[in-house]
Amino acid sequence: MDILKTLKKIIKAEILFWLIVGLVLLISSCKEQSASKDLAVHSKDMSTAPITSEASQTSPEFNAYWYSGEAEISSYKLEQARYGELREGQAVLIYVTEDFLPNAQVKADQQNSKNISVLKLNATKNFNTGIYPYSIMQSVFYPVSNNRHAIKVSSSIQEWCGHAYTQLNNRAEFEVMLHSYFEGEADKTFKLKKAVLENELWTQLRIAPKSLPTGSLKVIPSFEFSRLKHIPIKAYKAEATLNAGTYTINYPDLNRRLSITFNPDFPFDILSWEETFKSGFGSQAKELTTKATRLKTIKSSYWQKNSNKDEVLRETLLLN
Prior knowledge:
By secondary structure, the protein is of the alpha+beta class. It contains 5 helices and 15 strands. It has helices at residues 2-43, 60-66, 198-207, 223-229, 312-316; strands at 71-82, 85-100, 116-129, 132-143, 152-159, 162-170, 174-179, 188-192, 196-197, 215-220, 236-243, 246-251, 256-262, 270-279, 286-300. The protein has a 15-stranded mixed sheet with strand order 8-7-6-5-4-3-2-1-15-14-13-12-11-10-9, with helices on one face.
């Protein structure tokens, strides 16, 4: 009997051992699969969004340029008006096509017929104000079909005092979320009636500049301008004009004028822009003009260029 009891204990111990081994192997396998998936998502070519029914309505020239597996990256010499003075800096515009989820309104990890093909713009600015630096980034996700407003717009501004983040989602109405270190602007959510978004015009221009809105309009200024000037995010009266290679918006109530100069021929690349407004506060405010002039443009699958040896590409773009 003692022998039988001993054998039973041994058998139970072995079963428990192999159960534990199997569980450990299963967990390890799941982690490896998850890691592989994450790596695939991050290394996947971001600009090979499938040519869906929306994208197929565009020209072969458009498809060859924007669905080539590369982003278009342009660097600019920047003179930024801030606190009543002009600051030297750099700006970069990164355009790339992506598959976008219409409901979650984020980049799709998998190809699906319900995805929306968007032209994404990440626009960055870097400049110093005295001892401390500013870093600004605005993102626009605009449908290649060019038949609706941007699906999503976001903006972040960082400097040594703190940072601010704004996000707009295009649903039944525009849904806006705002976070800021300023008391009067912190942690707000609200809705807006749909109107032209200044941010989206920078992508619409690259798809079909002749479709840009002109005449008397209601336009929601760029999130960058609204945050730096601490004005309400809403639509303002504007007058827009389109001439050969130049698109201009005047905001009479804001004493602001934005002019974008671009190549009138495909791919309608942006050559420069100017933005005139009162910079500074109170009696120190003065009318100044922010200017950006293109330095260099390259096509690159930049998300794969993340090793030290790839830093030479920054030199190609004339970036510090």
